[in-house]
Design a protein that fits this description.
The chain is mainly α. Helices cover about 65% and strands about 0% of the residues. The protein has one domain: ADP-ribosylglycohydrolase fold, CATH 1.10.4080. It contains 15 helices and no strands. It is globular, with a radius of gyration of 18 Å. About 50% of the residues are buried.
């Protein structure tokens, strides 16, 4: 149990580290990053959002909002997603958590997330219709708490992942990415190493060829295909947490999200105890505390779900 906690905490803190590191160079091109920083390796804040040092963006704060809603819903609500007819109470709670997050004026919010949250606020609907413009990475970036809360139940993982995704994003590429990287995270939390990670990526991209990343095209935008290709390219090329994350964020574009996702996956692979301490100490203490508290709570939920199949 201690080893699992270390890996789960490593994933959640890794997400925040990647978010904070990448946000500085978000929307920059690699040549612009090189001209300004050489190689960007430190959490310094700034960027187009003018962040404080160690401040995170919507990748982390929306994940925390989702995690809070899951904890508030509790084990009984979560157990419904292991059944064929889940209660909508939990999803309404998640929608309300997203509304509160948006109304608190977060430092950043993607257009698709904003549109979906405003739709829920207006009419209470838990999903919009399929939209060809919904193939962004917003549902993927925040799904970590769902993975943790449903760690021992595949059916609940799949149903709840798609349900939270469809609150704002309704597109098959978004769905495939959210489920795919969620399953990769589950694999890493169970102890998979670099070789198994590489085999998984090869098999999954064969089944989902839109996400094939060899040869890597060098695009790291918020389009979910570009995001996933970037994440898998750098994650499978680098076994070391720091090397993988630095290479990812120096690709620029949507660097806070690609950084957050690589940080999450590489953090699960190495565990919290092996995260670079200089980066961990740069995160704002309130963020670290919130993540640590949620990690314990979400693992407790996962245990409840396992005990009551």
């Amino acid at each position: 149990m201690r080893e699992l906690f270390d890996k789960v905490l490593g994933a959640y803190l890794g997400l925040a580290i990647g978010d904070a590191l990448g946000a500085t160079v978000e929307f920059m091109r690699p040549r612009e990053i090189e001209a300004r920083y050489g190689v960007h390796t430190e959490i310094v804040g700034g960027g187009w959002l003018k962040l404080a040092r160690g401040q995170v963006t919507d990748d982390t704060t929306l994940s925390l909002a989702l995690g809070s809603a899951l904890l508030q819903g509790g084990a009984t609500a979560l157990q419904g997603f292991a059944a064929t007819q889940p209660d909508t109470t939990l999803m309404r709670g998640i929608g309300q958590a997203f509304v509160q997050w948006l109304q608190a004026r977060p430092v950043d919010c993607g257009n698709t997330c904003r549109r979906g949250i405003q739709r829920f606020l207006l009419d209470g609907s838990l999903a919009g219709p399929y939209n060809p413009g919904d193939a962004g990475n917003g549902a993927l970036m925040r799904n970590l708490p769902v993975v943790l809360a449903t760690l021992h139940d595949e059916a609940a993982f799949e149903r709840l992942s798609l349900a939270q995704a469809h609150l704002t994003h309704h597109h098959p590429l978004s769905d495939a990415a959210t489920l795919g990287l969620g399953r990769l995270l589950r694999l890493l939390l169970r102890g998979a190493g670099q070789a198994e990670c590489q085999r998984w990526a090869e098999t999954w991209t064969t089944e989902h060829p839109a996400f094939g990343f060899t040869p890597y095209r060098g695009r790291a935008t918020a389009y979910v295909v570009d995001t996933v290709q970037t994440v898998l390219h750098f994650l499978t090329r680098h076994d070391d947490f720091e090397a993988a994350l630095v290479a990812t964020v120096n690709q620029g574009d949507d660097a806070d999200t690609t950084g957050a996702l690589v940080g999450m996956l590489a953090g699960a692979r190495c565990g919290a105890g092996r995260l670079p301490q200089r980066w961990l100490h740069r995160l704002q203490p309130t963020t670290v505390q919130a993540i640590t508290d949620q990690t314990s709570g979400l693992l407790a939920l996962a245990s409840c779900l396992e005990a009551h199949p």
